[in-house]
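Pasting as-is:
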Amino acid sequence: MLMEKITRDINGEYISSCSVVYVGEKSCIKSLTPLSGSHLRCACLCANKCKEIEQEFIDGNTTQKESDLFQEDMAYSIGAIMASVAFLESTINEFFQEFFYKFDNLTINKSYWMDLKTKWDEDAGRIQKMKKTLADKYGYSSKEIGDQSELITKYEIAHQILFNKQLDKSCDACVDFGNLIHLRNQLVHFKLKWQTTHPEEEDLYIMRLRFENKFKKNVFMEKSGNCYFPDKCLGAGCAEWSIFVSTKFLNLFSNTISESGIDLLKPHINRIIQEYSFSKT
């Protein structure tokens, strides 16, 4: 016996949850609890906190030391970036999980998906097997798939199998998606580098060219002689940008795959965006 239900969380938003009940001598109940919405909410909370901190500094309405406020601002900005990427990661994972859960009832050409379904079910070495599929079946070069992140590979293979064509990675949404992942990776694998007496003229992390014109600099450091990354880069502007990028890319991808009758962008995502006043998407 198979049951699907809708559960309401403590904030009143609807989240799809699947339960499987086997009736016989033994009963077994299984459920899936998605986290994509929670990651997005976390990003929004962090970005709004950045805006509050920087506005306090601009208004001079604070009793905290400027250095403490700056460190908090940077910390919340990092939180927004991490959560924005986690939102994209969990969304595509949830897509595959739900897609293969409903696989037998889908009205698509399943022959293209059987190999991927097997790889997904095996779990171990899943990404490498996906990359091998892109190379063997669809002619991707080893350099092309070797240089891209595992997250992009997941979206790439879903798009390739659904439409038998590559994801257009030259469009603005995809370029910024790649930039966001690059920024997240720089933070996760951050390495200290010596600065010279003129750090504002340097770009040791090769970040200024990527991001200087994407968003506003951190208000604590914008007029200082400090280096662009991380001091001027990480702030409210960067935090908001990470949310705009992640939701813009997901909107683009979701609109594309909706042609196949697959709903990737759940209604509660837009409610979260509106709730936290990030309506640019």
